[in-house]
Amino acid sequence: MTCYALPMLGRPRDPEIDERVMAVARRHLAQHGYDGMSLTAIAGEAGTTRQALYRRWPTKADLATAAVAAMSRTAEQAPTEDMFADLVRELDAFRRGIGRPDGVSMVGTMLVTSTDPEIVTFYRERIVAPRRAALREILERARDHGLLSSDADIDAALGMFPGSWYARSLQGVPPLPRWAERTAAVIWRGLGGTPS
Prior knowledge:
Layout: H1 17-36, H2 39-46, H3 50-56, H4 60-71, H5 83-98, H6 103-111, H7 117-144, H8 154-171, H9 179-190
């Protein structure tokens, strides 16, 4: 018996739709917050349909956290022998995401007590945990290579990286020039290392 492949039905997926939707979703989150975010409005502005959104992101929380996570994704790059440079690169990815005009406001939107628990869970799993894991891996590798003190308090350091950014935002002052390099250097020294 001969089998023939059936042709694919429907229109092919638009390869640019994800980026369009992400950009619109980020803007809507910043302007309206999570509760005011409308998938219908996002789909219309992005030039697609609500059904197309649901095929890619099954829930509103899924789309919102995907939009935020896409802002600060580190370019795929293997770890190098220069762990201080790896740390700066990871912090710079955070800076690019959070440093957008609506970056800090979106972080606040994700974490207010009235926010849907599903989105808080997604946010922690997709954004907070991967960033902390990447930073921890770099610092532990540096410690294991003798570049940091054997008793370096890595857990304390992990909170200081983003905290140094948020503190200036709360003060209403602009970020430090060369924030990634300067923050990495201060914390690296505090962990017993000498920046390269």
